Each structure stands twice: as C-alpha cells, then as structure tokens.
C-alpha cells in the first residue's frame, strides 16, 4: 500500500468539481468490480496473479460471479488457494476511493448511511471534509469460529459513548460497529463459514439483504455496500449442514475449487511457491534436479489417491511445497557439514523430510494402524517408482542387479563428500553410465552425479529389483522361498523340481 495519498480533493465541493458525480455517486462496490474486470478482460491483462491451475475451471466461474454482481462461496478442501483467490479481488477495485473523513464505516460522501455523516454533510455542505481509502484497506477478512458473536460481526451498543455524548442509549450514534459495517464499500470475506453460529448467520443475511439488524433489541438500519465472499470445506457444507438455508439462498454463486489436475500443474504451483532460490550470505549453491521435484509432486498425488489417507480432509498443496523446502534444507545442511559449495538434493533427503509430510496427512483407520511414518515412507517409495519408470521405462538394468546378486552391497554415508560418493557408486558395474537419461554427462559436478546414481538405486529398490535396509544399505533382493522346497537347501529343491 502507498505510504501517502496523491493530491486528491479534501472537501466535498472540490470532489464534485474535479470528478464527475457518476464516478462515485450511485455506483456500488459490485458495479466497481464489474467495470474494472471488464476493462481488464478487454485489455487482455492477467486477472488473478499467482493463481495457477484454475484458468479453465475456477477463474471463469469467479469472473461470471463478479460480472453477475453475486456474493459467492468457494467450496474446496484445504490448501486449494481459496483465501488467496478472494484476496486477489482487491486488485479489481479502484486504487483510491473517497469517503467522509473520520467515518468508521467509510461512508460515501454522496450518499452517507450513518447518522453522524448525514448530519455532517447536511451542516457543512461543500466544505464537508473528504479522506481517501486505498484499495488494500477495503478488504476485511474474518475466520469463522463458534465463539464469534453478533457484536464482533455487526456491532454493539456502547454505553460509554452514550454517556460521553449525553445521548440516549438507543440512539444510532451510540453503536460500536463490528467487522461487517467496517467493510462497507469493500469486500468482506468469511473463511470456514459453516463454523459460524446459526444466529450470527441470520444477522449476516438480514443485513446483506434487508439492510437492517437489531442490536440489543434496538433496530438499526444499515444498507451496507459490500461484496460478501465465503469459503468452506465441502464436507462441512454438505455433511454437517451448518450453513443455514436462508443464507445459502442469498449466496449467488457456489464455486468448487480443486487440487491440480495434472502433475505439470502441481509442479508449476510448487515451483512458484516453494522457497528453493536461496540467496544471501549462504556459501552453498543449491541446484534442484527435476526428478526430485517430480518425486515430491508425485508424492502428493499418490497420497490423494491412497485409501489410507482421509479423502474428506484432502492432501493440501502445502505438502509438496513444505517437503521441497525441507528437502532443500537437508541437502544444504549436508553440503555445509561436508564443506562443499554445491548442494544437490537426493532421494534420501525426501525421506529426511518426513516431519513435513506426516503432519499434513489425516489417516483412515488402516493408516492409523500402520502409523504416519510408515505410510509416508511407502508413499515416497511409490512416488520414486513412478518417476523412475517415466525416465527409464525401457532401460535394461540387469547388469546392476546382477552386481548385487553376486554378493555386492553398498551402504551410503549421508555425510560423505560427493567425490567419495561417486567413487563408492562407481564400484557398481554400469551404474554411472545409466544416468544419461537424466541429462547428465561426465563433466557434471560430483554432487549431481552422486544424486542421479542414488536415484537409480532407489528406483530399482522401489520396483523390488534390489533391496535396501538401514543396516546393510542396498543389497540383492531376497528370493521368495517355497515352503515345500526346504528354503535354500539345493537337494530338497532339486527333488521337488524332479517330481
């Protein structure tokens, strides 16, 4: 928001002389939003900056709601950018808007609705003082909770104000305005609407439709000029049924939000939101491989499809964002400990990011039995397997698998230097040559080559071509034993095969 207002009229008289009366008189907030939206569409300008993945679904519906001058509600699971989208509506407001100076509800000087401003304009006329409101100040947001009162939302009688002014306690001038009146001539957003008590919802629809409300038994007429936007979880909205019917009937548009429909959309959102461009005093340069980004995003997609994860709660897009940041931090820490100038995240860093996964997964009964850590590890393994297949679908890894089957094993030290890692991985026949599909050459830094080679081993482990455990590291996959053949006894096995 600008620190100071530009040179704008300071009285009602100069306002009338400088601007046509039609610019501010008789034009509601919804008219203002509609007019500015039409101009932006005609100029082919972006409508909502930073909102990704909704261009063909949610954004057109929001545009239709604004063009229709509707109050609307966004229904969606957590982490679907509902609040961010509503906050972007302020960009469709005029940059500066005049109001009667000193007014708590930012009254329109051409049509004041509060008693104080009506009296001031009537007495002062053209000399009535005017102040200016920036678009950022015309947005009020409230998180609905069961303890919210009608006084918080609408207002209350202030006996101290009445005593100081010597007025009757039932006089309109004694009202202390709540959040909704203070959002007059702006946008009022309520998050998690179903959590708002029924009697408060009654006060909302009454003041938004009829323009009046009763405070402590005293009727107050407040024909507010406001756009109301709500958010809610669809489970709360439909199953718990806590949005009262008269309020639902007065909400013009119901718009469903969603998670990214494709991995590519999720990657774009996560890349835009995650803090991975780490500049400043850090001596470590961070390079994030594409396959790591894809594994992290696939992790979120796999979790949304997993039957052990509660579908009613959803898997927030904040999960891949937080995981990617944690992955970057673990790689950064490893590079600092090893005294290296380049940090390259590896698959093991995704396992190290478990704290940013488990807290964002609401599990069903089956998942609770297994435990959050176990479910998260299995989801990582599944994601690694899918991304590995995308890169190496027709690749032959029999030489690498054979190396382990002949007794080879490899336990990687997380804190080892990248050069030592490459030397260890280079012992596996044919492994380093297989990193070419990842776009790597022999001239790449050791940290990048080590991470790519480890990804191949993790992919083989995900597809059960090799095994891995905490004690021995990567080893050959244990063969399945037939209970009839006596385990590994070759004589008993040969006898069964002969029979």
Concise account of the structure shown:
The protein is of the alpha/beta class and 499 residues long.
Q: How many domains in all?
A: 2
User: What do we call the CATH homologous superfamily of the largest domain?
Assistant: P-loop containing nucleotide triphosphate hydrolases
**Content-based structural category:** alpha/beta
Coarse shape: elongated
> What is the helical fraction, as a range of percent?
40-55%
Quote the average pLDDT. Answer: 87
Biggest sheet, open or closed, and with what strands and sense? 5 strands, parallel
| Low-pLDDT stretches | 480-499
Secondary-structure arrangement, i.e. CATH architecture of the largest domain: 3-Layer(aba) Sandwich
Q: Count the strands?
A: 15
> Kindly, what is the distance between the CA atoms of the first and last residues, rounded to a whole number of angstroms?
86 Å
What gyration radius follows from the Cα positions, in whole Å?
Answer: 31 Å
Strand order of the largest sheet: 4-7-10-1-11
DSSP helical segment count:
22
| Top CATH class of the largest domain | Alpha Beta
The third-level CATH topology of the largest domain is Rossmann fold
Strand content: 5-15%
């Amino acid at each position: 928001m600008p620190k100071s207002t530009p040179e704008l009229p300071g009285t009602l008289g100069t306002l009338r002389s400088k601007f046509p009366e039609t610019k501010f008189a008789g034009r509601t907030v919804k008219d203002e939003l509609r007019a500015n939206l039409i101009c932006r569409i005609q100029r082919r300008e972006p409508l909502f900056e930073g909102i990704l993945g909704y261009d063909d679904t949610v954004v057109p519906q929001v545009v239709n709601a604004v063009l229709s001058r509707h109050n609307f509600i966004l229904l969606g699971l957590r982490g679907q950018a509902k609040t961010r989208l509503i906050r972007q509506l302020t960009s469709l407001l005029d940059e500066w808007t005049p109001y009667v100076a000193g007014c708590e509800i930012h009254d329109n000087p051409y049509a004041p609705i509060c008693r104080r401003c009506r009296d001031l304009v009537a007495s002062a006329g053209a000399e009535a003082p005017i102040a200016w409101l920036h678009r950022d100040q015309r947005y009020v947001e409230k998180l609905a909770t069961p303890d919210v009162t009608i006084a918080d939302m609408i207002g209350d009688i202030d006996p101290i104000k009445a005593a100081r002014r010597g007025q009757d306690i039932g006089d309109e001038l004694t009202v202390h305005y709540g959040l909704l009146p203070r959002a007059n001539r702006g946008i009022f957003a309520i998050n998690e609407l179903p959590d708002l008590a029924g009697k408060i919802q009654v006060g909302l629809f009454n003041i938004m439709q009829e323009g009046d409300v009763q405070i402590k038994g005293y009727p107050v007429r407040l024909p507010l000029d406001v756009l109301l936007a709500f958010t809610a979880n669809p489970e709360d909205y439909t199953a718990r049924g806590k949005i009262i019917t008269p309020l639902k009937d007065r909400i013009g548009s119901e718009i469903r939000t969603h998670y990214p429909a494709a991995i590519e959309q999720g990657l774009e959102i996560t890349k835009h939101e995650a803090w991975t461009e780490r500049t400043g005093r850090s001596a470590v340069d961070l390079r994030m491989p594409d396959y790591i980004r894809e594994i992290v995003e696939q992790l979120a997609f796999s979790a949304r499809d997993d039957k052990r994860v509660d579908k009613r709660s959803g898997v927030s897009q904040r999960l891949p964002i937080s995981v990617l940041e944690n992955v970057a931090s673990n790689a950064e820490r490893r590079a600092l400990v090893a005294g290296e100038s380049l940090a390259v995240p590896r698959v093991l860093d995704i396992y190290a990011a478990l704290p940013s996964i488990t807290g964002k997964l609401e599990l069903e009964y089956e998942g609770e039995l297994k435990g959050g850590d176990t479910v998260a590890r299995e989801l990582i393994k599944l994601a690694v397997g899918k991304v590995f297949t995308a890169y190496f679908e027709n690749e032959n890894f029999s030489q690498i698998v054979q190396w382990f089957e002949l007794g080879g094993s490899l336990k990687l030290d997380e804190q080892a230097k990248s050069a030592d890692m490459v030397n260890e991985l280079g012992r596996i026949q044919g492994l380093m040559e297989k990193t070419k599909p990842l776009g790597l050459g022999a001239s790449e830094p050791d940290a990048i080559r080590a991470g790519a080679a480890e990804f191949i081993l993790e992919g083989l482990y995900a597809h059960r071509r090799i095994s891995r455990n905490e004690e021995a590291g990567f080893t050959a996959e244990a063969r399945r034993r037939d209970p009839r053949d006596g385990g590994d006894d070759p004589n008993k096995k040969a006898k069964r095969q002969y029979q």
